[in-house]
Amino acid sequence: MNRRSFSILVIAFVTVLVVAALQNRPPAPLNPSATLSQFNLLGQDLNIQTADIQAIRLRDPKSNISFVISRDINGIWTAPEWEGSLDVNTASDIAKTVSLMPYQSTVPISASTNLTGYGFSPEGFFSVEVLLTNQAGHVIAIGNLIPTGGAYYGLVDDRQEIYLLERGPVDYLVTQLIKPPLT
Fold first, then answer.
1. How far apart are CA 59 and CA 50, in angstroms?
2. What are the pLDDT digits (tens) for 23-43?
3. Is residue 50 exposed (0-12), middle (13-18) or buried (19+ Cβ within 10 Å)?
4. Residue 78 pairs with which residues in a beta bridge?
5. pLDDT number for residue 20
6. Directed axis angle between helix 88-100 and helix 167-178, to 10°?
7. Which residues, 6 or more positions from 46, have their beta carbon under 8 angstroms from its beta carbon?
8. For residue 81, which phi and psi values (nearest 5 degrees)?
9. b/e sequence 128-157, b meaning 16+ C-beta within 10 Å
């Protein structure tokens, strides 16, 4: 091997190491100084308190894959449709995430609004369905990311507005559907 080939191999190896290091570092928070008080809370708008949630279904409308958690008669979270033990701490975190669900703002829907551009054709890519202890229910449909990538478009029940839902909580819920917290 000549000197030139060796130099090229060293440069290629260093490049691979740098790329690997960059890919393995944890992502930086979108806004490290952001606090929950800077956002509107969908759960507050819908009067969803964590203690009042009876069941939650996370669902992919396209494949119809879903993950359901519900409280038993003792108030303990269970995953009745799944085998294995549910991580009740994660189930509690799912309920807290749903009851808070921060959003930036809303955009009114008019008769001329084309929801396909927001990722609803007719449904989004993900939905969160909530049943409360008083038998009231809510559906949150999640569409595309907004152009800046920091939020998702969302539709809630039959409200005539599009919500800009914070990305982190939605991504967390999608992760729980993809890999349910079961052992």
1. 19
2. 443 443 444 444 445 678 988
3. middle
4. 70
5. 41
6. 140
7. 138, 156, 157
8. -95, 5
9. bbbbbeeeeebebbbbeebeeeebbbbbbe
Determine the pLDDT at residue 11.
Answer: 55
User: Are the C-beta atoms of 154 and 140 separated by less than 8 Å?
Assistant: yes
Buried b (16+ CB within 10 A) or exposed e, 52-84: bbbbbbbbbbeeeeebbbbbeeeeebbbeeeee
Token couple for 145: 């990311």
- pLDDT band with cut points at 50, 70 and 90 for residue 81: confident
The whole-number average pLDDT for the span 123-149 is 94
Q: pLDDT (tens digit, 9 = 90+) per residue, 158-178?
A: 999 999 999 999 999 999 999
pTM of the model: 0.77
Closest CA to 108 of 53, 162, 177, 41: 162
Type of residue found at 166: E
